[in-house]
Amino acid sequence: MMTRCTKRNRENSRSKRESSQATSWRRLGGRVNFRAVSNTARPRRANNSVGSEESYKTYTETMPWLRIPFEQEDRRQRLARALDVQAIPTLVILDPRDNIITLEGRTELLEDPEGLNFPWTSRLVNILTEKYATSLHDAPAIILFVEGDDCEIQFGESVLLPAAELYRRERPDYDPNFDDPDDQLQFYIALDCETSDILREFVGLEDAVPLLTAVDIPRGLYAVMEDGAEIGVESVQQFVDSYRAGKLQTHKITAVHKQSGGGGDQQQQLPDKSQE
User: How far from the centroid of its chain's Cα atoms is residue 203's Cα?
Assistant: First the structure.
């Protein structure tokens, strides 16, 4: 059983948590391959000229992977076509069998620089990064707040994954790679970080961990597992079942239900850190 504690008791552990996040991607991701088709820091169409040999070498020498020699342009073009590269630079991530995981590795890396969800495959339980926080406006989510050490991330996955697997089995036609998440319950682990702090403030959640919540921004409601309850596989499943059945005590998200001057509801959005 994990004991719930407040932020005051957690301040001294944040630096340790930050250092552990840097290595958590190794456990989450496993082995993958990288393919970079790039020659300039400014995106452009992949069929353009790659410039001079000197600039090509200067740029690619900063990268840790193998490169195709400048004079083998036809080979580079064939690789770009095989990986469906439309612009450069492009970071393509492949699995050990050279199946494409994502063509948007560059975007994923910019949005998740610590690699918390590396290698960014479709997962049933994800770390709540800024990217996923934005998606909370489209679908409800079960979110477990933890401090962020590797052992706590493992704990979060172990208690959330069975419920997520059961939920997904009931929806065999839903494909997260192509379908919109509207009304599809998402499952996240929220670490002790700025993204989680912003979400807590927006929703009105207690600043404590571990904290199991159901957050439904589209409907402006949230629910919290009662204080003192043990968080485990069975209790998480009961919490999810009760939420889906409408049996949990819910609270209004003040920011969503905030009244405008003329009356009626005025839905607000989670703050975008990139605009601060």
Answer: 19
Question: What angle, rounded to 10 degrees, do the helices at 233-244 and 150-169 form?
Answer: 50
Phi, then psi, of 243 in degrees rounded to 5: -65, -45
Tens of pLDDT, residue by residue, the chain (276 residues): 555 665 545 554 454 444 443 333 333 344 455 555 544 334 444 444 456 888 888 878 888 878 888 899 899 889 888 888 888 788 888 888 888 888 778 887 887 788 877 877 778 999 998 888 888 999 999 999 999 888 999 999 999 999 999 999 988 777 666 566 667 899 999 999 999 999 999 999 999 999 999 999 999 999 999 988 999 999 999 999 999 999 999 999 988 866 434 444 444 556 555 444
Q: How, if at all, do strands 5-6 and 208-209 pair?
A: antiparallel
Single-letter residue type at 264:
G
What amino acid is encoded at 193 in this protein? C
| Strand blocks (E) in 90-140 | 90-94, 100-102, 126-127
Quick count: other Cβ atoms within 10 Å of Cβ 106? 18
Distance CA 140, CA 39 (A): 41
Q: Say what angle helices 14-29 and 150-169 make with each other, to 10 degrees.
A: 50
**E strand or H helix at 214:** strand 211-216
Rounded distance between C-alpha atoms, residue 141 and residue 156, angstroms: 14
Which backbone phi and psi does 221 adopt, to 5 degrees?
A: -130, 155
